[in-house]
Design a protein that fits this description.
Blueprint (H helix, E strand, L loop, with lengths): L1 H19 L5 E6 L12 E5 L10 E6 L16 E8 L9 E5 L11 E5 L5 E5 L9 E4 L12 E7 L31 E5 L5 H17 L1
Antiparallel strand pairs: 1-2, 1-6, 2-10, 3-4, 4-9, 5-7, 5-10, 6-7, 8-9
Helix pairs in contact: 1-2
Length: 219
Amino acid sequence: MKKHIAYLGIMAAVSAWVTSARAVPLEVFQVTDPIQDEWFMPQQVHELGTAGFPPGELISSLQVSWNNHIPCPKEYLGGGAVQVRITNLTGQDWVNGVWYVADTPETSLSNWDEWVGQFGFAPGQAFRIDNVGENTPLVYESMAYDNVFQAGETWEFIIQEYSNPRPGSLPSDFASVGLIGGGSLGDFLSTGSIIAVPEPSSVVLIALGGLVLLWRRRR
């Protein structure tokens, strides 16, 4: 009986890994020219989004009322801002950073840190969504205040002095996103991408899968 319970637990872990593996990584490049916070973004990332994204990259997105927090005072010119609410529906934690990247040349904002792009596309203004340093766009975490986008957690962050003159460029469409990832290519109304790096737990789950095979051989 104990062996059976252990087997079910291992299979559940492997099933979770298979689900998360449905996410498709993409390669990005970073132009190191910081005006606020300097950070390193790994080349292999995932794009998170709403419609058309696999379960391992799925979030929800909604524009909410701006709480008047100014993420980067030294770059603020007195304009408005957009506050965005995203909820992690991927079933995994994103502990190594979450970023907003502007997708189109028309999109502008004043709290960008560096430029980031996908190979084959022009880079866009980007910032890390966190509450440390000179640029602090992250204003709400529904779970622990630790800058980890946990499974099931809701974040709210601010894009300072956002503007995009294109018709149909809806602020609420930030997380269904366009040019950074293949999951949303063709969404011509989107103006920005949410990209992230997952927790390095896949190796552990692969090892558990090996235990399943070993257990079955010894059975």
